[in-house]
């Protein structure tokens, strides 16, 4: 079963040596996405809510390129730069997700200057 790179112009191009997403069989891993605009490469938003929304739009774009959606996601990992941002991130997150919710882990990390959130996703697809 081959490993298939997933790529879309609707999400930011990786700045290092990794794929936006990789599918192997019915498993799809979406690489960590941040709040970059795919066309300009600029950060979208100054708040955690704005950046979370853009980040999730980027995750959705990679999912769509693989023929998937948030309905196929079983796990999301959220990386925040500040514990105080959890509530605002969670509010924005809730605007994109529906029940039954995916599993989720939130951790606190350092990100490049200006970035407040990063999110990756694991999806299981139909054949």
Q: Which structural class should the secondary elements be placed in? A: alpha+beta
How many helices in DSSP terms?
2
**Share of helix, binned:** 10-25%
Widest beta sheet: strand line-up? 1-2-3-6-4-5
What features would you describe in this structure?
- By secondary structure, the protein is an alpha+beta fold.
- It is 21% helix and 29% strand.
- It is built from 2 helices and 6 strands, in the order βββαβαββ.
- It has helices at 48-65, 86-94; strands at residues 3-6, 21-24, 27-33, 73-80, 103-108, 117-124.
- It has a 6-stranded mixed β-sheet with strand order 1-2-3-6-4-5, covered by helices on one side.
- Helix 2 (86-94) links the parallel strand 4 and strand 5 (103-108).
- Helix 1 (48-65) packs across helix 2 (86-94).
- It is globular and about 40 Å long.
- The chain starts with a strand and ends with a strand.
- The model has no long low-confidence stretch (mean pLDDT 96).
Overview in brief:
By secondary structure, the protein is an alpha+beta fold. The chain has two helices and six strands; from the N terminus they run βββαβαββ.
Supply database-style keywords.
single chain; 127 residues; alpha+beta; 6-stranded mixed beta sheet; 2 helices; 21% helix; globular
Question: Topology of this protein?
Answer:
Layout: E1 3-6, E2 21-24, E3 27-33, H1 48-65, E4 73-80, H2 86-94, E5 103-108, E6 117-124
Parallel strand pairs: 4-5
Antiparallel strand pairs: 1-2, 2-3, 3-6, 4-6
């Amino acid at each position: 079963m081959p490993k298939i790179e997933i790529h879309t112009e609707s999400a930011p191009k990786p700045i290092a040596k990794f794929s936006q997403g990789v599918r192997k069989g019915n498993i799809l891993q979406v690489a960590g996405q941040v709040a970059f605009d795919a066309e300009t490469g600029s950060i979208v938003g100054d708040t955690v809510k704005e950046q979370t929304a853009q980040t999730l739009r980027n995750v959705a774009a990679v999912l769509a390129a693989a023929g998937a959606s948030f309905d196929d996601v079983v796990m999301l990992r959220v990386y925040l730069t500040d514990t105080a941002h959890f509530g605002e991130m969670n509010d924005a997150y809730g605007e994109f997700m529906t029940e039954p919710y995916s599993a989720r882990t939130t951790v606190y990390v350092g990100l490049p200057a200006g970035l407040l959130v990063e999110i990756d996703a694991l999806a299981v697809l139909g054949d």
